[in-house]
Amino acid sequence: MPRAGLTTDRVVAAAADLADATGFESVTVSALARHFGVKDASLYTHVRNLQDLRVRVALLAGGELIDEIAAAVAGRAGKEALAAFAGAYRAYALRHPGRYAATQIRVDQSLVADSPALRRTAEITYGMLRAYGLAEPDLTDAVRLLRSTFHGYCALEAAGGFGAPRDVQASWDKAVDALHVALANWPREPDGSRGH
After folding, report:
1. I need a surface site. Which of 20, 64, 103, 177 has the fewest CB within 10 A?
2. Pfam families from the xrefs (predicted)?
């Protein structure tokens, strides 16, 4: 592949594909250079370093994930929106394991502010949770509950960690039902203040 054909978008897309095929941790500038048939130095006109490349993959994957979630939750509210959100999240995580792993890295907050995809993620997630009557700081607490539940379940499922004969989808549905109950009955401080 000629060097002239390389663009930052093509390099990042190839890195995302490589992550899905071989694992996010195996994505290196050298591996990408081999993929394109060029020297490592040729890629440094498109990405600053490995960390820059990985952050770009994370932003690409985050945008793809929220696009799928947004399409799933459109026109829905409450438990129906939560189930659609959860289902789209899980489907993406299982279909794109490397891209999904990229979405779990810590991204500098200044980049988050500049990323339309990550701002949209916050808007859609917080919008869904506001339908449960939540406001800060409960919104942040609820986001952390959802993220840790979804991520933990998907990570265990992808690793084959559920050995019991119970259907994995049935357990997922129950988990979403339980999250709905938790959100609908969220423990709020009586005066709106937080305990110490």
Report:
1. 177
2. TetR_C_33, TetR_N
